[in-house]
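Example with several molecule types.
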Amino acid sequence: MGKLDGKVAIVTGAGGGLGRCHALGLAAEGAAVVVNDLGGARDGTGGGHSMADAVVAEIKAAGGRAVAQYGNVADAADAADLVKTAVDAFGRLDIVINNAGILRDRTFKKITHEEWDAVIAVHLRGTYLVTRAAWDVFMAQGEGGRIVNTSSTSGLIGNFGQTNYGAAKAGIAGFTRVLALEGMKYGITVNTLAPAAWTRMTEDLMPTEQAQPMAPEKVSPVVVWLCTEDAANVTGRQFCVGSNRITLLSWQVTPIGQHDPKAAPWTVDEVDAAMKASQANWPKLLRLSDV
Ligand code: NAI
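Resulting structure tokens for the full complex:
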């Protein structure tokens, strides 16, 4: 008996890296999986069927159920077709893992509009489009659902040279927090994953010794758990996961000052005094090393 027997999942960008491991993990718990992947290069150029097909073959070889879909998540028709593929093949949809992603790293001084738009499109628009199509199915089924959206410490904390990627990933986290509120009355949970793993996306940023400790397989159990009944009351959360470590990342609220709301607006000098009086108590600016 798997924890996800009878469930149907979509994993975007599941032809390699983290998405492949999520798909294998979900299938191992009994979910039927639609393996989506455009099959292109790390920067999103190109495409092909071999990546998604290989993961479908792996799942089937292990006794699981899976079908491939080769659409571009940033394309509305492809995203709708992805959800339709799940329903046509397996009769329903319960789980969406928005994972597909690309990189176009560039310092802000040099970034082009094309590099900005391409990254925002795949991550933020792609997450929106697939979720939007899936939401209709969740509403029609009336049995809740599970959504895990992939953000990054680049968006939640900050990382040099990734304004496009960080903006998209912070957007995904904001999207997740709002959708979690809207999903509550329907039993739909929506959580954010900020993974850290040695994949083709990060292999030139990490030393090869990190390949084993940072294997993407060490992230997927948290994704699978979020899709189980055990996590039915977990929503709107941000989990940083990598190298067998799980960290919850939340906002901090630090009161700085409050005048009577009916009084005149603060003077700039009063603001200055309040800021200076409280600054020693402000939480430190988070760095990547903190998670
Ligand atoms: P990856 O490059 O191995 O996987 C991304 C997959 O998405 C690829 O298989 C690619 O073909 C697919 N893809 C790209 N554009 C697509 C599109 N428009 N439609 C459908 N599929 C598309 O990289 P990795 O590391 O597995 O990344 C997975 C997710 O995790 C991404 O969202 C990434 O931004 C995020 N992430 C990864 C981190 C890491 O340490 N590896 C750190 C933080 C976030």
